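Technical annex, item 7. During the second reporting period the consortium partners agreed on a shared format for inverse folding records so that results from different sites could be compared directly. Each record opens with the tokenized structure and is followed by the designed sequence. A conforming record, contributed by the partner at site C, is shown below for reference.
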């Protein structure tokens, strides 16, 4: 079975975490949990990008040392990982010695292969994006120049080392053609191919105009371009330059989940760096869209930046995880709305899922000896068989990063199950046919168990809570262990507690 290595981008520490960071991290966590439950060996990396001019300036504005500044802000992102209940295996910082060693080794490999040379650069530069901008990507408003992302540009002239990116144009196009899903979704791949086909210029990969970064080996006048530095984290965390260690051999190449604004760095520059160093390129780049807030672009100037910690306080963690994964097809832009979130929580999690569990299990606890029996007749229940038969569809949807599609299938089964509860009316059967009542309750419970298992990557806390009511620890959420549950022949439940409460708007 193939191992799975998933990464978030490492988050830039010039500001505090926002909804975009949470969205990316949760999506990667869902992938990690899903494939882990499916039986894969998995590795999940996140962390912080701590060098560059933006960080240096932010530290100066606060009149503190850059390292002290990055220590403080990086801790905010580490805390976010904890609050989001991420199942990450590592949290890397680009100020760590292991990363410095890795980056400088990669630089030396590129230098030895004549992939880097020293020259001079003059051009328009975006401090916010840490990137030079081509003339055809510049717009001018009131005498001020901006790039396509709306970042203000300044003219920069400096001595610089260059990476021979132009040499890799054809090799990159060959890579995209040979691996058709190298970038997901396909629309983003087409954007990347169009950019590369338009011609690549050699890339400036060092800076002399500021100091906060990793020194170029044997040239202290230069620090490394922040993107060459940052991207290398994906292999630093696996122990590079030691390619013989178990982690590197087991998990590289990996899958990078990123926002569409940094796709070019990951899908063009990063594979070119690696191939030039005789290293394998990543397996896949998955690019998601941006979020707006109540129909408006999110920006600090508008004061509408969404704090995920506040949302968790108001609505709950699993509720936020579910909303972000369900509300918009992954890869598309999405709009955050409090009304939409409350409707999702109340309609899907509280009414459709939580209320089903509460009313059925409470009825079992009071009227069916607190026991669920797994008889052959129960296993032949039509809705349960439909759930099982949709398993391959669910696997395929997750393979395509269709989180919303996956959840639609699951909640379709829940709709069927709720309809069955209403039609079978076990509360009426209690008066007329207790054997039939018992059979109906066992059938519903079996379906709840399987549906909860499929939902676990999205709502891990809620799933564990449901399984604990059935007397099962979280290890039984593994897809491979469901038969172990059935082998028990029966389960004795505890008194149910509400899993998802309604939210008053």
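Designed sequence (site C submission):
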């Amino acid at each position: 079975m193939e191992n799975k290595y998933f990464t978030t981008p490492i988050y830039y520490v010039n500001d505090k975490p926002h909804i975009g960071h949470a969205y990316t991290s949760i999506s990667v966590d869902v992938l990690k949990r899903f494939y882990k439950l499916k039986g894969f060996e998995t590795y999940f990396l996140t962390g912080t990008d701590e060098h560059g001019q933006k960080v240096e300036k932010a530290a100066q504005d606060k009149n503190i040392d850059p390292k002290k500044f990055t220590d403080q802000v990086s801790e905010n992102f580490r805390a976010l990982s904890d609050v989001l209940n991420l199942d990450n295996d590592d949290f890397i910082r680009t100020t760590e010695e292991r990363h410095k060693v890795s980056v400088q080794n990669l630089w030396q490999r590129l230098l030895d292969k004549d992939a880097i040379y020293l020259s001079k650069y003059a051009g328009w530069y975006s401090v916010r994006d840490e990137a030079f901008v081509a003339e055809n990507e510049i717009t001018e408003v009131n005498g001020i120049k901006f790039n396509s992302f709306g970042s203000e540009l300044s003219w920069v002239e400096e001595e610089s080392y260059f990476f021979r990116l132009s040499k890799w144009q054809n090799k990159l196009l060959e890579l995209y053609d040979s691996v058709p899903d190298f970038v997901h979704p396909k629309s983003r791949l087409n954007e990347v191919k169009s950019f590369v086909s338009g011609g690549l210029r050699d890339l400036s990969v060092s800076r002399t105009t500021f100091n906060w970064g990793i020194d170029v080996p044997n040239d202290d006048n230069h620090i490394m371009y922040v993107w060459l530095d940052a991207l290398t984290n994906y292999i630093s965390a696996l122990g590079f330059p030691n390619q013989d260690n178990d982690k590197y051999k087991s998990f590289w190449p990996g899958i990078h989940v990123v926002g569409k604004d940094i796709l070019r760095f990951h899908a063009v520059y990063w594979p070119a760096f690696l191939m030039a160093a005789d290293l394998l390129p990543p397996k896949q780049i998955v690019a998601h869209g941006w979020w707006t807030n109540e129909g408006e672009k999110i920006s600090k100037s508008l004061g509408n930046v969404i704090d995920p910690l506040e949302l968790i306080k108001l609505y709950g963690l699993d509720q936020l995880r579910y909303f972000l994964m369900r509300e918009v097809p992954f890869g598309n832009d999405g709009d955050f709305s409090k009304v939409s979130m409350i409707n999702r929580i109340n309609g899907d999690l509280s009414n459709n899922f939580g209320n089903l569990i509460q009313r059925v299990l409470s009825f079992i606890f009071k009227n069916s000896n607190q026991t669920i029996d797994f008889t052959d007749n129960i296993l032949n229940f039509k809705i349960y068989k439909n759930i099982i038969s949709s398993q391959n569809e669910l696997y395929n949807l997750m393979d395509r990063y269709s989180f919303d599609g996956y959840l639609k299938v699951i909640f379709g089964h829940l709709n069927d199950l709720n309809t069955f509860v209403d039609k079978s009316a076990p509360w009426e059967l209690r008066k007329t046919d207790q054997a039939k009542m018992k059979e109906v309750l066992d059938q519903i419970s079996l379906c709840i168990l399987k549906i909860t298992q499929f939902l676990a990557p999205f709502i891990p806390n809620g799933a564990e809570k449901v399984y604990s009511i059935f007397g099962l620890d979280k290890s039984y959420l593994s897809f491979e262990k469901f038969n172990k549950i059935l082998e028990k022949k029966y389960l004795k439940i505890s008194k149910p507690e509400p899993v998802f409460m309604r939210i008053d708007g």
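The CA atoms of residues 3 and 490 lie 35 Å apart. The domain at 338-492 is CATH 1.10.730.10 (Isoleucyl-tRNA Synthetase; Domain 1). All partners now use this format for quarterly exchanges.
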